[in-house]
Structures are given as C-alpha cells and as structure tokens.
Amino acid sequence: MKIRSNFVSNSSSSSFVIMTTKANHERALNVLHPFIRSVVIAMAPHNKKFNNEDVVLLGYMNLNDSSWDEYLDVEYDDEIPKNEYDNKMSFSDAFDEYCKEIKKREDKVVEFHQDG
Hints:
Elements: E1 2-4, E2 13-21, H1 22-31, H2 34-42, E3 46-50, E4 53-63, E5 66-67, H3 91-102, E6 109-115
Helix pairs in contact: 2-3
C-alpha cells in the first residue's frame, strides 16, 4: 500500500480524502459550477471538529475500473460541463475541480491519496 499526497490516475484501486475548513468548503461550493456542487453534495461531506475548528471531510474512491459514480445519487438535470479532454465531466473530474478550488485559499487543507 502506498500513501501519496497528490492525485495519481494509473492505479487500479485508489481513494482520495480531503479535509478543509467548513468556511473554505462553503466558499468553494458558492463559486463552483452547479454540476460540481451537486456532486460534492451527493458525496455527503462529513462535518467534524478538528483542533476545535469546524472542518469538512470528503472522499472519493475508484475500485478496479469502477467507481462511486454508479452509487452516487446526484441531483442535477442541466448540461454537464466538459472536462479538459472535451468530454462530459465525470464525478471524479468534479471532485478534482472541487479540490483545486479549496486549495486556492490559505486555509488549512489536508489531502491524502492511497492507491494499491
């Protein structure tokens, strides 16, 4: 098992967990595309306390050519934005965009990536 601090896409099994302040999470939700916001909400972020601070813990998992995409109940009926390869954005693309947005602030962001 390897633990890395960055995203890697060549693994057959991988998971990503990110933790940020509740304020940073809410700021990101307010500026992101509605599709991304819907995906993040469907991931049911866990609100916790960490060092007496309100934080949001959010994760995404890929398992052997399948992912949480088929299990997420995303409520979104409008046009899905395109990803960097000019295809419809996937749920993992949306999660990546959320992660990029929360990292724009200087708030504390903790990120874990595990692949096996």
